[in-house]
Structures are given as C-alpha cells and as structure tokens.
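Incident review: delayed structure delivery

Summary: a single-chain prediction request sat in the queue longer than the usual turnaround. Root cause was a stuck worker, restarted by the on-call engineer. No data loss occurred. The affected request and its eventual output are reproduced below so the record is complete for anyone auditing the incident later.

Affected input:
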Amino acid sequence: MNLESEYNGIDSNGSFWLAWRIKREKSWHTYWKYPGDVGVAPMVEWSLPSGLVAEDLVFPPPKKVSMGKVRAYGHTGETLFLCRFRAQNPLPIGKKISISGNFSWLTCSVTCLPGNAEMSIDLSVLQNPVPDPLCKPRFDSFRRERPIACPNFWEAQAIEEPSRFLLKIPFHLFDSPSGIYFFNEGKNILSNVPQPVSRYKGFWEISLKKSPWGKPQRYLKGLLYKADGWDSSAKSFYKLNLRLRAE
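Output delivered after worker restart:
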C-alpha cells in the first residue's frame, strides 16, 4: 500500500492527480464506494498545505465479493483510488509540496479486519514534469477502465414497484442477458439476492429487490456490467441515471 504520483512533480498551475494503491492478499477484499448489504468503503482524510484543495476519491469499478455468505460490492487484487488536487493560486517553480493523509479501510475474507495508516508524499513544482515510467501506466489503465454513460439510443427505463425496481432495456440491443449485473449506488437495492433477467414486451427486464433500509429515490443510479463488454470499445461498465416511474 502506498501513495504515488503519475509524474515526477507538479506544474505551476497546481492541478494534479495522486493514487492510493492497494494490493490485497489472495481471497481478501475491500469495498466499493457503495458496498451493498455489508461493508465500509475505504476513506482518506487529507492534510494539505494552505490553498490546496482535494476532490472526491475516485473508485475503480466494482466486482461482486462475499463476506461469509453475504454478497457485496468491492475490489480484490491490486487497485488504485485516484484523487485530483487543485491549487487555488499558481505555484512558484521550485516550491516543495507535502501531502499527507490518514487512510482507513476494512478488508474481509471469512472475517473482517479494519486498517489504518498515515501516508505522505513530497512533490516539487517543476517547469516540465515528466511521467513516472512505473506509475503513469497504472494511472492510464485506471482511466481506460472508468465507466462511461450508456448511449442515448438505449432508451432504458426504470420502474418502481412495491417490493422491487425493474431496469428495462430494449432486447434488440444485445442477444443474451448472460453476464449482466447492476451495481447500485446507494442502499436501496439488496446486493445479497439474485438479479433475475426476463424478456417481456420488447425489453430485457432486470429485477432488483428493494432493501428494507433504503430511502425514497427519484432516480435509479449505478453501473450496469456486462462480462464480455458492451461494444467494440470493450467497455464492461455503463453508467445509468434513470428517473424512476411507477407502473
């Protein structure tokens, strides 16, 4: 686990990215920003020089993980979590910037272990920063895998019923519903139950069981995953933000 930069320094405009890199032991996982029925997402509290602002932590796409017999959303193996920083005023060439943070996480397998660490990184303000040959490829890979919005021509729909949500996608968009899964943003859908898919009146209908601790929602938000990718770009995740309607 470490904190790393994609360049050997930062330029004077003071806009740059850092990555929190986690490498997990086999069979262990941490959690996504929206863990599902169990789990706590990794968090960081930054200690920054005056005039420097940190944006929200950017999580990699999730996968299904299990804490005992309970299925949730998280990450295994090695992943990055990216954060963008901005200086409110131009930085002088040669200035040294020190960034530190208190990092906390929950890692689980058959049991769970909380973790906490202080990490820091020192960066110089340079005229022309150059990419770090080891770190930059990892940043580039992270960005290539980021979910994108689903195409407008999809005309997907989200229906709310008393005990479930229905995610409806025109069936002509793909031949088979195998390998499809919806990762919900929030806690209004249970992660520990199947998401059956059926074909009805021109749509694939994905049934999403409501959570008893969910809150009223106006939109269904999350990532729709397809194991073999959605299109020629090989993207596996589409972002959805659909207004809910009753039926």
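Verification: The longest strand covers residues 96-108.
Action items: add queue-age alerting; document worker restart procedure.
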